[in-house]
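Researcher: Quick test of sequence recovery. Tokens follow.
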């Protein structure tokens, strides 16, 4: 492996190696390969003074740092990028070890709400390389044949239920219908896979949700998502000012942007409601204070605060107010989001194209854990827009699985399937 010195703060040396979403192995000495831990795409590999390796953004580089150079991906430059199934590593990687895997967080530890967590994922579910708990090999997406809502088996995606696997696919025809993803695609298998993954990772992983305001624009969807939080299926939420604002508006006035959550009636002077909600929360000092004081008695933010589930509200240039917890510095918001994404074993993104793309760019296709464990990271997108679903794949997150549907119906269906509730109230 070759290394180059950083010539100036934030500037990588010539011929630097840029990381991808795939597992990347670095030869630290002849015959010894380590797997990059907590990786993300479009970053560089920094060698720390103690010899450990770290995947960092360009903005974190300091003059004199050592950065991996070489753009070969098949081991010729001491770097091997593995784009195949996780349980089918080449023989020369036998005996690989994870690079820089900290001690995992205990399963019962509670995180304070609204604070970014910097601890690594608890991968206790991954008993051996390339396997999930129960012995299911991480060797490809279940039930896929050729094209589907996810990438092909080479993505390394797996499910926790063996019998979801379909029969081996026949050789692809040169001409065939319905090889892409559209609103006409069948998503039954995708829903079943999502339910099994969420059930598994509720107790054995770290489930990160990325959500847009549409989730709280409907009375049933808002209750359902709060119910998922109460049931333990949300370990962190990434969103913007809008979702929190309209959820709090709903708690205070029963509206979202002045429209009734259930009856869709326009409230008199309802266009003031979201601003009044922000003003009320700012007067309380914080969302947490508003919940604790009883001003906010239901909804998504109430559930997050009550259950101690952390969240990150990333600001944007178009924000009203914003709410006190909104992080205005874009890079501070990115750091806070990545603190959760680097632990994620499953990500579910709901009707928010820009936040989904941002999260996707931070999410590797795998998690490396203690004891040489290796497991896939599942990434699901629920959106009514085919454009939004396809955009993430265009940005490099090739292992994402899309479900094209009204996100409000999606949340209600997921809640019912996971909790057995027939109604959400």
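Model:
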């Amino acid at each position: 492996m070759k290394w180059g010195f950083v010539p100036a703060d934030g500037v990588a040396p010539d011929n630097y190696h840029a990381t991808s979403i795939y597992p990347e192995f670095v030869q630290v000495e002849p015959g010894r390969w380590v797997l990059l831990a907590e990786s993300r795409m479009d970053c560089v590999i920094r060698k720390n003074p103690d010899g450990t390796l770290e995947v960092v953004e360009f903005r974190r580089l300091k003059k004199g740092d050592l950065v991996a150079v070489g753009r070969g991906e098949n081991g010729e430059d001491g770097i091997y990028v593995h784009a195949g199934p996780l349980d089918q590593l080449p023989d020369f990687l036998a005996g690989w070890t994870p690079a820089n895997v900290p001690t995992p967080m205990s399963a019962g530890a509670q995180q304070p709400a609204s604070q970014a967590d910097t601890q690594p994922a608890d991968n206790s579910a991954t008993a051996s390389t390339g396997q999930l708990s129960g012995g299911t090999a991480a060797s490809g997406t279940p039930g896929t044949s050729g094209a589907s809502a996810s990438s092909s088996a080479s993505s390394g995606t797996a499910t926790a239920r063996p019998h979801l696997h379909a029969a081996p696919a026949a050789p692809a025809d040169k001409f065939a219908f319905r090889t892409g993803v559209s609103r006409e695609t069948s998503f039954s298998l995708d829903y079943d896979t999502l339910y099994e993954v969420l059930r598994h990772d509720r107790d054995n992983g770290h489930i990160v949700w990325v959500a847009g305001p549409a989730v709280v624009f409907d009375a049933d969807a808002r209750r359902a998502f709060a119910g998922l939080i109460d049931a333990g299926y949300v370990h962190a939420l990434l969103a913007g000012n809008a979702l929190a604002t309209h959820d709090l508006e709903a708690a205070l006035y029963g509206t979202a942007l002045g429209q009734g959550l259930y009856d869709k009636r326009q409230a008199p002077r309802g266009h003031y409601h979201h601003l009044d909600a922000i003003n009320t929360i700012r007067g309380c000092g914080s969302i947490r204070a508003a919940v604790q004081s009883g001003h906010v008695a239901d909804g998504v933010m109430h559930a997050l605060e009550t259950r101690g589930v952390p969240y990150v509200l990333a600001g944007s240039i178009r924000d009203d107010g914003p709410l006190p917890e909104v992080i205005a510095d874009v890079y501070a918001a990115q750091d806070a989001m990545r603190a959760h994404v680097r632990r994620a074993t499953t990500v579910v993104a709901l009707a928010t194209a820009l936040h989904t793309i941002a999260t996707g760019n931070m999410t590797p296709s795998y998690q490396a854990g203690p004891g040489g464990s290796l497991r896939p990271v599942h990434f699901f997108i629920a959106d009514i827009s085919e454009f939004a679903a396809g955009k993430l794949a265009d940005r490099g997150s090739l292992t994402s699985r899309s479900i094209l549907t009204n996100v409000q119906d999606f949340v209600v269906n997921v809640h019912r399937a996971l909790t057995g509730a027939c109604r959400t109230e």
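The chain has two domains: 2-98, 153-419.
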